[in-house]
Every structure is written in structure tokens, then in C-alpha cells.
Amino acid sequence: MISLRERSFRFFRTLRFRLAATFLLLLTAVLIIMSVLAARNLDEILETQGAAKLRDQIGALKGWFSFDEQGHPVWDEVDMSDPEEVAELSRLQSVYVVADDTGKLEKATTDPKLKELWDRSTIRSEVAQIQQTHKAVLKTIHSTDGTPYQVLSSTMTDNKHNNKVWYVAEGRSLAEDRDVVRRFQRHLILFFPIALVACAIISWYSAGGVLTGLQSVERAAQEITGSNLGLQIPKRDADDELDRLIDSFNAMSGRLKESFEQIRQFSTDVSHELRTPLTAIQGQLEVALFTATRKEQLQEAIENALQDVERLSNLVRALLLLSQSESGQIPIRKTLLDLGRLTADLVEQFQIPAEAEEVSLSHTSTASILCEADRTQIERVVTNLLSNAIKYTPRGGWIRTSVSEAGNMVRLTVADSGVGIPRDHLPHIFDRFYRVPDPNPEKGLGLGLSFVASIVKAHGGQIRVHSEVGKGSRFDVLLPAASAHRALTQPAPAMTQTEPRA
Question: In terms of pTM, does the model score above 0.70?
Fold first, then answer.
């Protein structure tokens, strides 16, 4: 049994968990970054707004002052009956400083917690800075109890008394702003786990939805048996990666079904073809064993059995070659091949069997026709086609071969005036063991054309057939032509004597 630890380990390795966890980690990182940036941005906005507010206040503060005869700043009269003036003045006087350019206080906030506002060295340095840059100084200070204050420092000039410069500062408490930022951060902290839980649930179900297609592929793969190899998964019509995966799986399933059908058919065909000679051998030997009384009878039975054994051996050898060819086990060693000269030589070799059957065999080729092919395999193609043509052409008939160019392909044609192939049999003549009904069973095993088709396909070519009963047949083999570069850089291959093919 699977332990809880192993079950947990498997769960964490599932694709659904990894997708959901990746999404959640990315979302967490994004939320953290956004929260930090949002809190910082809020703080900067409040600081900017506070600075603008202080500029307005310090401008208003300067407007409330005038200078007496001794050159000291004095408050203008306040209309105590006007509550707006009283409130404004009270607001301006909550945090402020007025001092001369030496740092000597003239008027200031009376709150003892704000002693940092009155520091004479700070006042002198800020006056010097303002006179140099012509800009107000914005700073943050802390009271003795830790409360932060935003302070804006500026100057005002007494035009009546030698343009004397006075230091003016206005401040405001940042406690409310910091409280706003803290409340914002607190809300983010409360929102954060809720958002993560919600996103975890959404990401989990979203990942499950995305993986539905994969799960259908998994179920289909588990349901595939020898009886339903062609099982197809319905598409989601989303035209996405999963649909393309489903297409690939369906195509693979179709190929598997086709391959297994070929194997099943191959086994059936082999069993059928092997049973006949084996039954004949068994019958001949049994008859000889139980009925033969003379040496000649035994010899005749053995000779007949040997003929069937030879036929059986040829069948096995042909089946082996066909199986190797269809499975790609026979290597294709392509070289520059003069197909016209090769065909001419093979036609020359087949003149004797053609004359024995009283059939005229000829070849026409106008020039050297080069292609890229395996010489040995193409020889098998030509010899099979010539053998079939001689076999099915009556006496007095003719067989003509030709090689010509066809665009980026070369065409080998083998035509005869033989018996022809009925139209309904043409689609099947390249199938294994398929034979057009013929009164002479010794004319073939039904493997030659299958072998030819597999070789041509392995070369990236095509084979076509046109036939009419009583008028003959024409086989056209199309093979890739030699590239122009290779034809120019390599010399034409020299022809050698070709060994006859069985």
C-alpha cells in the first residue's frame, strides 16, 4: 500500500499542483511589490500635498506680518468678530517660527516639544541656503515625543529697513498622514491572505480546467487495447496547444491502428500462404510413407516435396525482405545513379527470358538521366517490373521501357501488351499477397509489387499504374532527380555488369 508520505509526495509532483503553485507564487510576488509601491506612492502623494499646503500657509503667514518703526515684525490687527480670520490665524500659529538672519527668535510656537524648530545654527544655515538657491527648504523634524512634522522654511524682506532678511518657517504635523498610511497598510495586510486564498482556489480550478484535455488523453491511453487501437478523443475546438496535442494523439492512434492492422493482416496472409505448401508437403510425404512400394515412387514424392520446400523458402525470403523494407531495416544508400543506363543494362539481361517467351523487349532513352537512389534497391524495382511484364504478356506481345525527366523527378516506364488488370483490382495490386485471379497459381506469390511500392516510397517517390484488360499495363515509377549541384560536382557513375536478380 502507498503510505501517506508517498501520497503527499506524489501530490506535490502533480502538474496541476505545480501550475497552481507557480501561478500563486507569481501572484504573491506581484501583490507584495504592488503593496509596497502603493504604500510608498501614497506616502509621496501625502507629502507632496502637504508641501503644497505649507506653501500656501507660509504665503498667508507672511501676509499677516508688517514691520514697526524699529524694524520688528508685528501681527496685523485681527478682527476677532470674524471667525474665519481667527481660525486661520490659529492654524498658522500652531507650528511656526519667525527669526532674524542670525537665528535670534522673534516669534515662534510655544510648544516645548518643538525645540528643534528654534535651533539657531539650523536657522542660519537655512537662511544662507535660501539666499543662495532662492528656493524654500522642506524638511521633516521630530518632536521630543516622536511626532513627525513637515516644515517649510522661507525668508521675507523688510524693505523699509535696509532690506533686512527675516527667517520664516511654517510646519504641520504628519501624524494624520502617517496614520492614513498605517491604516492603508493594515487594510492591505488584512486583504492579502483573503486574496491569496481566493486566488489559490481559482488557480487550482483553473489549472484543473486547463488539464482537462490532458486528462482525456490519459483516459484514452488507458482505454486503448488491441480491440480499439483507433480510439479518438473529441476536440475542444479551442485551437490551442491542448487541441494540437489531441490532434497529435488522434493521429498517433490512427497510425497505431493502421500498423496493427497491417501486422494482423500480415500474420493472416503469412499463415494462409505457408499453410498451402506445408499441407502439400505433409500430404505427399504421408502418401509416400503409406502407399509407396517402389523406389521410384519414393523418389517422386521427395522431388515434389522439395519443390514445395523451395517454394516455401522463396516465400519466407520474400516475406523477410518485404518486412525489412516496410520497417526501414534495409538501409537506403543513395548515390548518383544513371537510371537510363541501369535500365538499359537490365533490359539487356532480360532479353533471353523474353525471347524464351517469344516477347519483344526494348528500351528507349534519349540521354543520361540522373537520380539520387540506392542502386541495389532500384535494380530490384526494375527486375520485378520486368519479370511481371514477361510473366503476364502472351507470346507475340511486346514490352517497352523508357526513362525520361519529369520536372524535379525522373520517370521510369515499363509498358506491355499483356493481359491487363481489371479496374476493380487496380487499387489492391500493391497489397501484400494480393493476386489478380489467374488460372495459373505458379505465376507469383503476390509480394513483388508490394516490395516495389515499399522501395519507391522509401526513396520519396511514387508508383502509378494504368491498365486495361486485354490491352496491357503501364507502370510509371517517379524518383527524385539528382540536384543540379551534385550532378555538376560528381562524375556520372560508371556502369558495371549487373547480377541477375531472383
Answer: no
